[in-house]
Amino acid sequence: MNKIIGIQGITGSFHHQVAQEYFDQNIALDECLSFEELVDNLLSGKSDQAVMAIENSIAGPIIPNYALIDKNNLHIIGEHYLSIHQNLMALKGQKIEDIQEVHSHPMAILQCMEFLKKYPNIKLVEDKDTAETARRINEKQLIGIAAIASKTASEMYGLEILAPEIQTIKNNMTRFVIIKKENSFVPENEINRASIKFELDHKRGSLAAVLNVMSDCKLNLTKIQSLPKIDTPWKYSFFVDVTFDKYQDYAKAKSLMLIMAEYFKVLGEYKNTK
């Protein structure tokens, strides 16, 4: 029986590409048009695992996705980096001058703003998915509407690329995480990355003390992101990614942070692929 992998978007999306590259070809896709639907399907058992974009080298971290993983007690079991190439596409026979609106996922639009600023007359419309927008343009034969999506999407849905590689920074990478409802056992000798969450007492030096512990235990802090606690003013949760050479160093740091933090949670311990 094929493993069912949840993706945000449809066939031809970047999530679909990650699913193909990370897993073998014997998978079935659960296409979801929102990350909330993706999480719900994972929790209900409709999908076995899921692919979720977590940060982009241009647009930064996708904070709501960290919150979704945490709130629903999901487990990060792996990661995958994908080079993102954004293209402007529309029905064949049109030129950029004919385009009145550009539709795409807000993250894709954000990644292409320098190009889009050249065309102030074009209206930017946020949509749920890059590939789904391309498909809709084809199905409804929408004149004057363009999508920002992958080259694969243009080929699958019969659109013509009006401008290739329009992302602001050509080396545009998105980090995706692989999530499950239950944790997967990964041998300690293969674990060299962890995603954690902690909350600290609101006093001077509390964050610095935790960061010093990470440094003393030879952890490399690759990302730190704060998120305010809605129910507690001026209180923050910190989402942190660390890499390390020896699991024993991380285990020592974890034991110390468990003591120092008011709240501590491991979102995932897995293999660093970068």
Automatic annotation (TrEMBL):
Residues 195-274 form the ACT domain. It holds the Pfam family PDT. Keywords: Amino-acid biosynthesis, Aromatic amino acid biosynthesis, Lyase, Phenylalanine biosynthesis. One of its GO terms (biological process) is L-phenylalanine biosynthetic process. SUPFAM superfamilies: ACT-like (SSF55021), Periplasmic binding protein-like II (SSF53850). GO terms for cellular component: cytoplasm. One of its GO terms (molecular function) is prephenate dehydratase activity. Its EC number is 4.2.1.51. It comes from the Bacteria. InterPro entries: ACT-like_dom_sf (IPR045865), ACT_dom (IPR002912), Preph_deHydtase (IPR001086). It catalyses: prephenate + H(+) = 3-phenylpyruvate + CO2 + H2O. Residues 4-181 form the Prephenate dehydratase domain. This is prephenate dehydratase. It comes from Flavobacterium fryxellicola. The lineage of its organism: Bacteria, Pseudomonadati, Bacteroidota, Flavobacteriia, Flavobacteriales.
